[in-house]
UniProtKB/TrEMBL annotation:
Domain Thioredoxin: 59-196
Region Disordered, annotated ranges: 23-62
UniProt GO molecular function: antioxidant activity; oxidoreductase activity
Low complexity composition-biased segments: 47-60
Name of the protein in its database record: Redoxin domain-containing protein
Biological source species: Streptomyces parvus
Alphabetically ordered keywords of this record: Signal
Classification via SUPFAM superfamilies: Thioredoxin-like
Listed Pfam families: AhpC-TSA
Cited InterPro entries: AhpC/TSA, Thioredoxin-like_sf, Thioredoxin_domain, Thioredoxin_ResA/DsbE_sf
Signal peptide interval: 1-22
Length: 196
């Protein structure tokens, strides 16, 4: 009986804490909007009371931007919905790009430093898969997944038009940064700001 009465209270406190953190951590109106659907505790309570259902165990809600599938450079299937619920770094690179090679070490370090807290995914394009596999091996970035996007479908989905770009998403799938970080400089701070 105690577990039945304690679970809704714990879930409500957690939801309120997450809503409060989301509203205060954003530096722009978009971050505030992402937390505005539940402006006060009462509207948040009905979903909480239904959360203990089997659907709640399936994981966080998947935003539209993460509803894609792909294949890794190793030929394994990849489902973008697995990224939901955690901050995500999408690193768009091309195998022949010297700027991308210069970003590799810092990107790999950020991925290693935030295992379990954030996702880091390489999105390779503008060449053939064999060259992409060589890039991953040469740069020592095999510890996180790299998608083979030869047709540019994922690049188009995130409106990326050139290599050596980062798209950083918050845990709700909202873009909080998109651009170039020479040598990956500043990536660690951006990810720490979303996980810390």
């Amino acid at each position: 009986m105690r577990a039945r009465t304690a679970l809704p209270a714990v879930l409500t406190v957690t939801l309120l804490a997450l809503t409060g953190c989301g509203a205060g951590s954003g530096s722009d109106d978009e971050a505030a909007r992402s937390s505005s659907p539940s402006p006060s505790a009462p509207p948040a309570q009905p979903p909480t009371s239904s959360d203990p259902s089997p659907d709640a165990a399936s994981g966080p809600e998947v935003p539209e931007v993460l509803r894609f599938t792909a294949t890794t450079v190793d030929g394994k299937p990849f489902d973008g919905s697995t990224l939901a619920g955690k901050p995500t770094v999408l690193w768009f690179w091309a195998p022949w790009c010297p700027k991308c090679k210069a970003q590799a070490a810092e990107t790999a370090k950020v991925a290693a430093d935030h295992v379990g807290e954030a996702n880091v995914v390489g999105v390779a394009g503008l060449d053939k898969n064999a060259a992409m596999k060589d890039f991953v091996a040469d740069t020592g970035t095999s510890e996180f997944p790299h998608l083979s996007d030869e047709k540019g479908d994922i690049w188009k989905r995130f409106e990326v038009t050139e290599q050596s770009r980062y798209v950083v998403l918050d845990k709700d799938g909202k873009t909080v940064y998109e651009g170039v970080l020479p040598g990956g400089e500043g990536l660690a701070e951006k990810v720490s700001g979303l996980t810390g």
